[in-house]
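Figure caption, in words: inputs first, then the predicted bound structure.
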Amino acid sequence: MMMIRVVTFLMVCVVVRCQLSSDFYSKNCPNVLNIVRREVRSAVRNEMRMAASLLRLHFHDCFVNGCDGSVLLDGNDGEKFALPNLNSARGYEVIDSIKAAVETACGGVVSCADVLAIAARDSVVLSGGPTWNVLLGRRDGVSANQTAANLQLPSPFDSLDSIVSKFDAVGLNTTDVVALSGGHTIGLSRCALFSGRLSNFSGSGAPDATLDSSLIPELRSACPVNGDGNNTVALDNRSRDLFDNSYFRNLVNGRGILQSDQVLVSGDSAASTTKTIAELYSNNSAVFFCDFANAMIKMGNISPLTGGNGEIRRNCRVVNS
Ligand code: HEM
Ligand SMILES: *[C@@H]1O[C@H](CO)[C@@H](O)[C@H](O)[C@H]1NC(C)=O
Ligand SMILES: *[C@@H]1O[C@H](CO)[C@@H](O)[C@H](O)[C@H]1NC(C)=O
Ligand SMILES: *[C@@H]1O[C@H](CO)[C@@H](O)[C@H](O)[C@H]1NC(C)=O
Ligand SMILES: *[C@@H]1O[C@H](CO)[C@@H](O)[C@H](O)[C@H]1NC(C)=O
Ligand SMILES: *[C@@H]1O[C@H](CO)[C@@H](O)[C@H](O)[C@H]1NC(C)=O
Ligand SMILES: CC(=O)N[C@H]1CO[C@H](CO)[C@@H](O)[C@@H]1O
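Bound structure (2-acetamido-2-deoxy-beta-D-glucopyranose present):
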């Protein structure tokens, strides 16, 4: 069974081309992959959710100014304080400790943007998902852009068209939208981001009709009206910490948590090819794993700074002086 899966995975997989390289640090920091993996493993052992949080950080980095570590920069006007990240994005301290370990081994060599990319891959693998060769050689940006973070990161209240166009703007297509949304097979969401679906959805007087009604009582009890909007539920309650295709099995059953999840199969816009893709993933996890890995590589290739652009930040929170 395992053998068949592996063979299918290899057959389906088509390698994506790009400008970074997987052996970028082979001379100047040959141990970087082992160091990052060791640190991620220890953080995830300490708290399983951290795998999800680290995966999301790489996504939020790449969608704003490309994968340049900008999400990590401190400061009230930084991306950390943009709406999609405030009281939401997490894992910054873990990135600090990974970076510190890497700096001890090879100071001033490995970018924070690359640390995020490696940590995201390791997080997926440690959660039971696919692996891929992480392409490296990104340099770190010297500024963050909060406005861009607010405009360019997809919102859980976005329509399918809006989500598709935000991905398109960074060179990711509909297949990538669906595959990468599968990142929601791990991690949690706060009630405030979906509780509007549970009653009087968009002023309709009723819950969101695309939400399986048998899920509503459970979600209402986890997220009571006037309760703490910061309470959390699993994005994939079938297997909250396992990276598998059950997120897509939820979607075909109307059990996506966020509106932006469910629109992939229930949205009636022109882009509903997303439904065909989600259905495929719901009964073929090998194709999902392969498409996810390829889409992660594509996402990691968004506008990298290379050559003499940017810098290798010593502390991921501040630009070098
Ligand atoms: C398609 C558009 C997307 C939207 C609208 C979206 C939105 C969200 C929202 C609202 C949350 C919960 C945040 C909170 O509770 O404060 C979340 C969590 C998460 N997202 Fe997404 N997301 C999208 C795509 C992605 C992608 C592409 C990835 C990675 C490949 C990803 C990975 C995650 C993970 C792992 C979590 C859980 C984080 C944790 O538990 O700390 N998401 N997302
Ligand atoms: C920040 O992003 C916004 C929106 O994309 C853009 O209009 C603005 O020029 C950017 N600011 C800087 C300093 O690059
Ligand atoms: C998206 O791009 C990938 C290659 O990066 C390709 O294999 C796939 O067919 C494309 N999907 C769509 C819907 O165009
Ligand atoms: C639902 O919301 C709409 C608009 O906000 C409001 O006019 C209506 O009275 C609400 N209905 C119920 C049943 O709460
Ligand atoms: C969540 O917690 C933060 C920080 O304590 C607070 O500022 C915010 O208002 C809370 N959000 C909700 C929806 O309750
Ligand atoms: C895949 O799953 C969908 C629903 O999830 C189902 O309708 C469809 O028949 C399945 N297709 C195949 C080829 O098994
Ligand atoms: C909304 C939610 O989180 N529902 C359930 C998820 O699964 C556990 C059992 O594993 C239930 O106790 C929750 O109520």
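The first strand starts at residue 188 and ends at 190.
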